[in-house]
Each structure stands twice: as structure tokens, then as C-alpha cells.
Amino acid sequence: MPGLFGYVVWLLGALLEAAVVVCAIKRKALRPYLFLNFYMAASFLVTLGRYYMFAHFGLASSQYVYFYFYTDALLTIILYFALTSLFSRVFSEMGAEQYVKLGAVLLLGGTAVFSYAVVQQSSTKLVTHFVFEMSQNLYFVGVVLTYVLWVAVLKLRETRTRLIQLVLSLGVYFSLLTASYALGNLFHGFESFSQILTPLVGCFLPAAWSYAFWRIPEEARLATARLAVIR
Amino acid sequence: MMAAFILVCSVIFLLQFFISYCRSLIAASVREPLSQEVQEVTGLTRAATEEEFARVVQLLQLCPERPEERGEISLIRTYFRMLGVIRSTIAKIVPSLERWASAERGQCTHFVAVVLGRRIAFSRNLFAQQISG
């Protein structure tokens, strides 16, 4: 049983994911940030699906575990494309969207091939291990890509506050998850702590995006030079 | 080895993203002057300093909470504490960081004072609505 804390975080996560889409609709930001909202809607549905699997088969059942890892990989891929859509927005004025899309697909393919190469000789449950490995690798690729995007935002002097906050919160989310996975790989005792940390981290992204859609108007502008830690 | 490398990279990225995110939250309030009322209540007549942070937060907790501000206040408090850790550790080796951390903590105080001003205005409106209702 996940315990009271687990249930509260689970419910909070689902509510926040739904809140992102509601806030985006209310503030007319659904279409401009379609991929981001699609990711949140998918996350919400997956959360409901996971609860269904948990309620019917239990937390330790193979059905729940398979559903969890396969949907996790699927959500990571959707989030990866959401990140690509942010790249497209930042580079839209340079007309480089086609290159961004091509680069994103190539990088995704490269990550999949790398993950397959890592697991093919070391595992009997090849597909399951591959899915898990690819999720972890995509998180790291996500962190690096978000950082590249952040550097581009700084260099291009992007001033749209909402876009900046969406990018930065995504960076915080990706780096927290990557750090959590890396700690789990380094210290096996960390895994039990990771089971508490991961759902909490999962609440941060929808909370930050809800805030960005609800509180920051699309017209709000910000001098990015003020935000840089390293210039 | 690979996991250790990924861990180090992600912690460095996390720090950069987190600091920039908090600064983006604070940025809008930096240009906002403190109302006369807030200045009188907090005693902040000049630029806010880090020493006044705890007191302004205490005053903030006395005002009725606006739900939409809960998250940002917790985040800025975390940022304030994190800057304190940076000041008492890394800043001992890199002295320029100490001035930067102090200035940032002062801006955190200013941010909380701006929120306090909003809460006072919110409470006043609430009170006025109750009287007229």
C-alpha cells in the first residue's frame, strides 16, 4: 500500500495535471502550447490508468509494474516532443523549425539505439529493460537539451516571461529526475527514498506550469540578462 | 562511473535552473515599490536586507493567506535558505559570491514584502465586502 502520503501525492499530482490544461484553456494558451498541454492531459490519463491498475492488481503485481514502466517511457517521449515544441517557439523567428524537428527525431532515434545497445547483452527481459533504460537516457538527454534551450534563450535575448518560466521549470524537473535516477544507480539504498521523491518531483512540473499559464500573461516580458547565473 | 558523471551534471544543471527560476519569480516584484503601509508595518524604508527576511515572513503569516501565493512563498523561502548555505560554504572560497548571495537574499525580502502588501490589500477588500454585505 502506498500509505496516506502516497495517496495524497498521487491525488495532488492528478489534480495539478488537470489544472494545467484547465488554466491553459481559461487563459487561451491551449493552442500556442499544444504539445505541453497534450503531455499534461496524457499524464492525467496515465495517472488514472495507474490508479486503476493499482486498485485491481496491486502495487507489486506484474501488470502494474509493466503498465508503470511502459507508460513512463511513453510520457517521456511525449515530454521530449513538448521540449522540441519549446525549441520551435524560441527559434521560430529564425525559421529554423524544420532543423529543430529533424534534429529531435535523430536524437530520439540515437538515444533508442544507444539504449538498445546497452541492454541487448545484459538482460533476459529485453523489451522491459530497454524501455526502462531509454526512459532514463531520455531524461538525461532532456536535461542537456533544456540547458541548450536555456542558453539559446539567453543568447537570443528572449523576453517572453511565460516561455522562460516554462523552460526553467522543465529544466528543474528534468534535472531532479535525472539526479534521482543517478543516485538510485549509485546507491541501491536510495531507491526507497526515490519512491517518495519521484512523485513529489512529479508534482512540481504541473504546479509550475499551472502557475505560468494562470498568473503570467502572454504579453509579460522580462529581461533575461537578470536571470543568468553564469553569463 | 557513468552514473556519477550524470549525477554531477544534473546537480549543476539543477542549481542553475532553480536559481534562474526563482529569480524569474522575484524579477517582477523588484521593480514594484513598497506601499507606504508596508513600509510602516515592516520598517523597510530603504532597500530590503536579508536580516529582515524572517521578520517580514512572520508578518506575512499574520495576514490571511491567498491560495495562489502559497507555492511561490515556499519556493522563495527554499531559495533564501539555499543562498544561506551557499554563503556559508562556497562563498568562503569565492568571496564575490558572498556579496551576490546577500543581494539576492535582500531581493527575497523585498519579494516577501511585496506579497505582504498584496495580502494587506486583499484582507482590506475582504473586510470591506463583509461590511457592505
Task: Count every helix of chain A, treating DSSP H or I runs of 4 or more residues as helices.
Answer: 7
Radius of gyration of chain A: 18 Å
Using only C-alpha atoms, the radius of gyration of chain B works out to 18 Å
Q: So, CATH architecture of chain A?
A: Up-down Bundle
CATH topology of chain A: Rhopdopsin 7-helix transmembrane proteins
Distance between the termini of chain B: 67 Å
Low-confidence stretches of chain B: none
**Order of SSEs of chain A:** HHHHHHH
Number of helices of chain B: 6
This entry's quaternary arrangement is heterodimer
Total strands of chain B: 0
Give the rounded overall mean pLDDT of chain B.
88
Q: Strand pairing plus helix content of chain B: what structural class?
A: mainly alpha
Q: Which H/E pattern describes the elements of chain B? A: HHHHHH
Question: CA-to-CA gap between the ends of chain A?
Answer: 48 Å
Strand share of the residues of chain B?
under 5%
The structural class of chain A is mainly alpha
Sheet with most strands of chain A: none
Domain module tally of chain B: 1
**Helix percentage range of chain A:** over 70%
Total of domains of chain A: 1
Protein topology:
The complex is a heterodimer of chains A (231) and B (133).
Chain A: H1 3-26, H2 34-57, H3 62-91, H4 97-119, H5 126-155, H6 161-186, H7 190-215
Helix pairs in contact in A: 1-2, 1-7, 2-3, 3-4, 3-5, 4-5, 5-6, 6-7
Chain B: H1 2-30, H2 36-42, H3 53-62, H4 70-88, H5 90-93, H6 95-132
Helix pairs in contact in B: 1-4, 3-6, 4-6
Would you kindly provide a brief summary of this structure?
The complex is a heterodimer of chains A (231) and B (133). Chain A is an all-alpha fold and 231 residues long.
Provide a descriptive summary of the structure in words.
The complex is a heterodimer of chains A (about 230) and B (about 130). Chain A is an all-alpha fold and about 230 residues long. Chain A has a single domain, classed as Rhopdopsin 7-helix transmembrane proteins (Up-down Bundle), CATH 1.20.1070. Chain A has 7 helices and no strands. Chain A has helices at about 5-25, 35-55, 60-90, 95-120, 125-155, 160-185, 190-215. The longest helix of chain A is centred in the first third of the chain and has 30 residues, at about 60-90. Chain B has one domain (about 1-130). With about 130 residues, chain B is mainly alpha-helical. The longest helix of chain B has about 40 residues, at about 95-130. In chain B, helix 1 packs across helix 4 (about 70-90), helix 3 runs parallel beside helix 6 (about 95-130) and helix 4 runs antiparallel to helix 6 (about 95-130). The mean pLDDT of chain B is about 90. Chain B contains 6 helices and no strands. Chain B is elongated, with a radius of gyration of 18 Å. The interface of A and B includes residues 161, 211, 223 and 230 of A.
